Amino acid sequence: ERTVLNIIYMINWLFICYCKSWIDTGMLLKPERDRVTITCKSNDAYSYFHWYRQGPRMPLSYLLSITSSQNVTKEGLTAEYLDTSQRSRLHLPSSLLQDSGTYFCGVIAQQFRKSETHNQSLTDSEA
Protein backbone atom coordinates (compact mmCIF):
# COMPACT_ATOMS: atom_id res chain seq x y z
CA GLU A 1 0.00 0.00 0.00
CA ARG A 2 1.41 3.37 -1.01
CA THR A 3 1.17 6.37 1.26
CA VAL A 4 -0.26 9.53 -0.27
CA LEU A 5 1.58 12.77 0.45
CA ASN A 6 -0.43 15.94 0.71
CA ILE A 7 1.44 18.93 -0.67
CA ILE A 8 0.23 22.31 0.50
CA TYR A 9 1.95 25.22 -1.13
CA MET A 10 1.92 28.86 -0.22
CA ILE A 11 3.73 31.45 -2.26
CA ASN A 12 4.47 34.18 0.21
CA TRP A 13 6.38 37.16 -1.13
CA LEU A 14 7.63 39.61 1.43
CA PHE A 15 9.25 42.84 0.34
CA ILE A 16 10.90 44.03 3.52
CA CYS A 17 11.90 47.46 2.27
CA TYR A 18 8.70 48.16 0.36
CA CYS A 19 6.21 46.74 2.91
CA LYS A 20 4.27 44.78 0.27
CA SER A 21 3.26 41.14 0.54
CA TRP A 22 0.88 38.66 -1.05
CA ILE A 23 0.09 34.99 -0.46
CA ASP A 24 -1.16 32.29 -2.83
CA THR A 25 -2.07 28.95 -1.25
CA GLY A 26 -2.93 25.54 -2.62
CA MET A 27 -2.65 21.81 -2.04
CA LEU A 28 -1.31 18.85 -3.99
CA LEU A 29 -1.60 15.14 -3.19
CA LYS A 30 1.30 12.92 -4.24
CA PRO A 31 1.83 9.18 -3.70
CA GLU A 32 4.99 8.25 -1.86
CA ARG A 33 7.95 7.69 -4.24
CA ASP A 34 6.52 10.14 -6.79
CA ARG A 35 8.66 12.97 -8.12
CA VAL A 36 7.82 16.37 -6.64
CA THR A 37 8.87 19.71 -8.14
CA ILE A 38 8.44 23.03 -6.34
CA THR A 39 8.99 26.28 -8.25
CA CYS A 40 10.09 29.54 -6.67
CA LYS A 41 9.65 32.78 -8.64
CA SER A 42 11.21 36.20 -8.21
CA ASN A 43 10.29 39.47 -9.88
CA ASP A 44 13.93 40.36 -10.39
CA ALA A 45 16.73 38.81 -12.42
CA TYR A 46 20.02 37.63 -10.92
CA SER A 47 18.47 36.25 -7.76
CA TYR A 48 19.98 34.03 -5.08
CA PHE A 49 17.62 31.21 -4.07
CA HIS A 50 17.87 29.51 -0.66
CA TRP A 51 15.69 26.45 0.06
CA TYR A 52 14.45 25.38 3.51
CA ARG A 53 12.05 22.76 4.94
CA GLN A 54 10.06 22.72 8.15
CA GLY A 55 8.71 19.27 8.98
CA PRO A 56 5.56 18.79 11.06
CA ARG A 57 6.30 19.94 14.62
CA MET A 58 9.98 20.46 13.65
CA PRO A 59 12.20 23.54 13.42
CA LEU A 60 13.06 25.14 10.10
CA SER A 61 16.09 23.50 8.46
CA TYR A 62 18.33 24.72 5.63
CA LEU A 63 18.37 22.48 2.53
CA LEU A 64 20.56 24.17 -0.09
CA SER A 65 21.24 27.35 -2.08
CA ILE A 66 21.65 28.08 -5.75
CA THR A 67 23.01 31.24 -7.35
CA SER A 68 23.88 30.33 -10.92
CA SER A 69 22.73 28.24 -13.86
CA GLN A 70 24.53 25.16 -12.50
CA ASN A 71 22.25 22.67 -10.69
CA VAL A 72 22.99 21.94 -7.02
CA THR A 73 22.34 18.49 -5.50
CA LYS A 74 22.45 17.77 -1.78
CA GLU A 75 21.03 14.83 0.19
CA GLY A 76 18.89 13.62 -2.71
CA LEU A 77 17.40 17.04 -3.49
CA THR A 78 18.26 19.00 -6.63
CA ALA A 79 17.86 22.75 -7.07
CA GLU A 80 17.68 24.08 -10.59
CA TYR A 81 18.37 27.72 -11.53
CA LEU A 82 16.31 28.48 -14.62
CA ASP A 83 17.60 30.45 -17.59
CA THR A 84 15.38 33.44 -16.88
CA SER A 85 17.32 34.04 -13.63
CA GLN A 86 13.96 34.67 -11.99
CA ARG A 87 12.99 31.10 -11.07
CA SER A 88 14.39 28.13 -9.23
CA ARG A 89 12.96 24.63 -8.98
CA LEU A 90 13.51 22.17 -6.15
CA HIS A 91 13.19 18.53 -7.23
CA LEU A 92 12.47 15.64 -4.87
CA PRO A 93 13.08 12.66 -7.19
CA SER A 94 11.30 10.11 -5.00
CA SER A 95 9.20 11.64 -2.23
CA LEU A 96 9.08 9.86 1.11
CA LEU A 97 7.00 10.36 4.23
CA GLN A 98 9.94 12.11 5.93
CA ASP A 99 9.87 14.72 3.13
CA SER A 100 6.57 15.99 4.54
CA GLY A 101 6.59 19.60 5.64
CA THR A 102 6.50 23.18 4.49
CA TYR A 103 9.12 24.13 1.91
CA PHE A 104 10.43 27.68 1.90
CA CYS A 105 12.34 29.53 -0.76
CA GLY A 106 14.21 32.63 0.33
CA VAL A 107 15.08 34.96 -2.53
CA ILE A 108 17.62 37.76 -2.53
CA ALA A 109 17.57 39.87 -5.68
CA GLN A 110 20.94 41.43 -6.46
CA GLN A 111 19.48 44.32 -8.38
CA PHE A 112 17.42 45.92 -5.61
CA ARG A 113 18.72 43.98 -2.59
CA LYS A 114 15.23 43.06 -1.51
CA SER A 115 14.20 39.82 0.13
CA GLU A 116 11.28 37.60 -0.76
CA THR A 117 10.02 34.57 1.12
CA HIS A 118 8.16 31.70 -0.52
CA ASN A 119 6.97 28.44 0.95
CA GLN A 120 5.30 25.22 -0.07
CA SER A 121 4.09 22.46 2.23
CA LEU A 122 4.46 18.74 1.70
CA THR A 123 2.51 16.92 4.42
CA ASP A 124 1.48 13.32 4.84
CA SER A 125 -2.12 12.14 4.79
CA GLU A 126 -3.75 8.75 4.86
CA ALA A 127 -4.55 7.14 1.52
Automatic annotation (TrEMBL):
Q: Which domain of life is it from?
A: Eukaryota
- What Gene Ontology cellular component terms go with this record? T cell receptor complex
GO-annotated biological processes: adaptive immune response
- Transmembrane stretches, by residue range? none
Which keywords belong to this entry?
Adaptive immunity, Immunity, Immunoglobulin domain, Receptor, Signal, T cell receptor
What the entry lists under Gene3D superfamilies is as follows: Immunoglobulins
InterPro entries noted in UniProt: Ig-like_dom, Ig-like_dom_sf, Ig-like_fold, Ig_sub, Ig_V-set, TCR_variable_domain
Q: Does the keyword Magnesium apply?
A: no
**One matching Pfam family, short form?**
V-set
The record places domain Ig-like at 32-123
One of the entry's Gene Ontology molecular-function terms is: peptide antigen binding
Q: What is this protein called?
A: Ig-like domain-containing protein
